[in-house]
Structure formats: C-alpha cells, structure tokens
Design brief:
heterodimer; A: 282 residues; 67% helix; B: alpha/beta; Rossmann fold; globular
Chain lengths: 282, 164
Amino acid sequence: MEGRPHTDLENEQLKLEKLRHILMSSEREELESLRTDIHDPIRLAGLVDPLIDKKIIYLKENFPDHFGRQVNDLVETKIAASHDELVTVLYPVMGKMIKKYIGNEFQKLRESLEERISQTVNTPRRIFDTVKAKVFGVSESDMLLKSIDRYQIEEVYVIQAGSGLLLGSYSVNETLDRDLIAGMLTAIKSFVEDAFSRNQDELEMIHYGSYKLILQSFHKYYIVVAVSGTLTSADQDQISNLLLDFASQELKKDFSQVTSSQSDVLSMRLESYFSSQLHKAK
Amino acid sequence: MISKKVILTGSFGVGKTSLFNQFIYSKFSEKYLTTIGVKVNKRLIEVDGQELNILLWDIAGEIKQDKVPVNYFAGAEGILYVFDVTRKQTYDNIEQEIEYIKTLIPHAVIKIVGNKSDLLDQAALDALTQHVDVPIDCLTSAKTGDNVEQLFEILGRELIHISA
C-alpha cells in the first residue's frame, strides 16, 4: 500500500485534512477546554452554580405565576384524598378553639349580667339575691347564670330490659312514638354493651348536643331520663336518687307481661312523681 | 292491648326489610337498616278481637354469634325466620340456625317464612317443601304483599294464645 502512489482523489483528501487542521485549531482547543470543564466537577460547579442560583431566585420571585395552578390542584387532590385524616387531626384542635371561644363568650355574658344587675332597682328579689350571694360567697351573676342554665328533665322512660318494650313514660313535650324510642334505645344499649362487654359494664349515658340521656339499669327494666341544660355531677346524683326512690315505690310489680293498662298507670305515676319532684327542686 | 317483641331474621338478601316495610307501611321498599344493624318499628293489629302491639325488630345479616349482637334477641316472643325460595343457600343451614335461636330464646314462637314466592310457579313452590329441612309455615311475597298480613295474623294469634 505504501509503495503505491496516491491517487488524485486521495491527494485532495489529504490536503483538505491538513487545511481543516490548520483552520480549526482554535476551535479544537476550545472544545478540549470545555471537555475538561465538564469532566471536572469543581470547575463545572463554578460555572453552573451561579446560573442555577440566578434561576432559583427567579423562580422564588415568580413561583405562583409558573406553578400556582399545579400546586393548587395538587393540594386540592391531597385534601380530598385525606379528608378523614384531616378531620381526625383538626377535630381536637377545633374543639379547643370552640371551648376557648365559648369560655370568652360566657365571660362577656357574665360581665354584661353584672352590669345589668348593678343598674337594676332594689326590688325585694334583688335584695334577697344580694344577701344570698353575700352569705354563700358567690357573685350574683354566677347565681343568675346557674338559675338560667339549670337542667330540665324532658322525658322519662321505663323500659323492659332485653325486649325494649315500653312499660311507661313521661314527657314534658310531645315526642316521637315512645314505643319506637324505647325499642331503638334498647337496640343502641344492646349494641354498645355487646360490642364493649369486657366487664359486664352497662351503658350509663348518651350525649346528644345539649341533651343527655341518663340510663339507670335495674334487674328487669331500666329507666332512661332525657335531660336538657347543664348537668353537674351533683345533679346526676340527684336524678339517680329520684330514680331509685321511684323504683322502690312504684316498680315492685312483675313486668313480664306488657299491657297498655299497666303502661297507662305507670305513665301517670311517672308524671305525678317527676313533675312534683321537679317543682320541689326549683 | 298487649305488646310483644318480634324479630325478623334470616340470611342476607332474603327480603326481611321488604317484609318489614310491607307490614309496617304496606308498600314495597328498598330501604336499608341503620348503622347498628337493626331497625325497630311497630304496628297495632287486631286478632280475634284482641289488640296486639307488635314491636318488630328487623335484624340485618346472618344469625351467627359473631355477626349479630346476641342481646338483640333478648325478650323476643316471636321469631320470623325468613329465607329466599329462589336461593338454596338461604335455607341450607336452616335446621341448625333454628336450633341456635332456640338456645337463645327457648320459649319464642318461631315461624319459618319462604319469601319471594312471586318468583316461582306453584309446582316449584310445592316441590320446595321437600328441599327445606323444617316445615314451612308461610310463603310470602314482600313485593306483591301476598300472605304478609296473614303471616302476622298467624303469629299474632299464637302470641296472644301463649299470653293467655
């Protein structure tokens, strides 16, 4: 091959190659320098970092314009997917906030009452309340609040244990069908006691809004008292005593058979007993 | 007037709730039971001149110890065990389930009810008695209302009879 003289074409190509070598030497050097920059991390960082920093600053300033919609969509999707978890986390926090708010509002009410009390004329009742407040060492507004916020017995049901049949009832207002209330209360009681029957415990209270249902169990029946207003532990104790007294006086019969005549008699007794007891309490 | 607790029970999807609604409201309904698995309603009926207040407990699902609170059966004097005449699996274990119910409430009046009778012809209904291990007391259709009133009348008569 070496001995063979170059053809014209080959000579042309060699000349072109030499020319390219001469003309592109500076570009080649530049390319080499770029290669070195790219393969050396420190040198590359020195070149690129300022550009990235600049871009980050730009994005920080203009983030909402570029990604606002996507972020909003993502947050909405996440909130929708984690609804239950969010509620679980927020519930106690909201509870505390509401409690604090109510506490503040109560304080405002108390202050307003005190102001109004101080403006009222000296009626015999006012003089009596003032003396009573001084004797017992409490503020008049506290006494007034207590009297406003006193609990009230709304309904009383005597229900046969197990079957849920209504033995008798007393209600201040007209309510739903009492047989059905007795049945569903028994179903709820049975469900709770069956689900959590660790120590033969019994369901003793159900809270519903401003209502409380106090359940007192006896051997063959149980009594449910629906109470509205504020119920202190002393009040609960008082109601419990009322129920025990009533049971010992009026519920000695055998209630194996539930008849309407028996139920009517018991309902009348409940009414007379609880209305008179409540008058006494007031 | 006397009051009695009656329980509707049986496998899932046999039409207990439809029977319940047919008896209580006299119309076919697809409503479901409440969260605690039981719905209570009542109806006053008159049998042989005697008024009977039936408190009907519609219990959801199977009569297995681990699925339905045992307390739901407490104090019941009547049981309507409902099965679906078109589905064998709803009456396959009927004998054992009735025995189980008897251990919970030994003195209750139990009626075996084949529901959805509107879906079978008379010949198929007649043949059914040979396939079910216990005597069938009544064939009903909650959809058409067929035999529903009669079922409660039969049960009511027995409940009054045992109270006398």
